[in-house]
């Protein structure tokens, strides 16, 4: 039996009845019954105390990756508007004389 947690117990020499499914060459038991005592042992999955924080961590990461992919594929292509206009070169002295307002 395979699992993160087990509920129940079996002792050495107990008769047991296993319930599960057959995988290629291996029997995988989900539940084992002890017909003598009526006890049952089960394999448990991932506990909720681990699953909830994992989901709370993974969800924002997936959302961030989806947002990045959306932005990558929907962004406009080509150069920005006005890219071919020549830049105006202004000397520092002209800029200073104009009162630092961007031109002479």
Structural notes for this entry:
With about 100 residues, the chain is of the alpha+beta class. About 30% of the residues lie in helices and about 20% in strands. A four-stranded antiparallel sheet has the order 1-4-3-2, with no helix packed on it. The longest helix is centred in the middle third of the chain and has 27 residues, at about 50-75. The mean pLDDT is about 80.
What is the strand arrangement across the widest sheet?
1-4-3-2
Task: Outline the biggest β-sheet.
Answer: 4 strands, antiparallel
Summed up, the helix count is: 2
Based on CA atoms alone, the radius of gyration comes out at: 35 Å
Q: How far from one another are the termini?
A: 84 Å
Content-based structural category: alpha+beta
Share of helix among residues?
Answer: 25-40%
Estimate the strand proportion. 15-25%
What's the mean pLDDT score?
81
Low-confidence stretches: none
Order of helices and strands: EEEEHH
Query: Which of globular, elongated, flat, extended, rod-shaped describes the shape?
Result: rod-shaped
Tell how many strands the DSSP assignment holds. 4
